[in-house]
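Researcher: Next sequence.
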Amino acid sequence: MTNLKMNERAWALADACVGRADELRIAVRALASGARVIDAGIEAAGGFGAGRVLTELCMGGLGHVALVPLTIDGETWSGVQVWTDHPAEACMASQYAGWAINPEGFFAMGSGPLRARARVEKELFGKLGYGEDVTRGVLVLDLGHPRNQRSKARRDHPGSRTERVISDSAACFHSAARRLLHYSGCVWTF
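Model: Next structure:
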């Protein structure tokens, strides 16, 4: 098994985020346990830069993200290009939010390279043949409640501009990006 050091890569990205907190419009705080929490869009404003870094963190530092123009039927839209040379590890062993974190009174889905350390989804990690034995790592939490808000908005306003992934304006694309940040906007480093 090759060690791609996704947790170390993501940790370095998280450290860089802390140094750029004002620029990225993120908030950083430490818990009594010593865990560092990086809010990339739950209470903090977030934005395109925070969304890009959050995506890279989720992929264990093995993903590359760029905001690019996307042409569909001769029209140009805002788009996101994501690529990696390690799709199984970056996507299935790290980015995929498959780890249910549910102590009493709390629920979130865990994404990020700490999944490769925990290997909670035994069958998946058995098939991947990948894992990391690390003493620290990065976990991204999908806190769930924004998903419920998004579902309510879809019921109340079917087909509304803010519910489209591809939009006809940068402002609407920014709204979609903010929703994505709210959806997976909390990074914990342990």
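Model: The radius of gyration is 17 Å. Confidence is low (pLDDT under 50) at residues 145-186.
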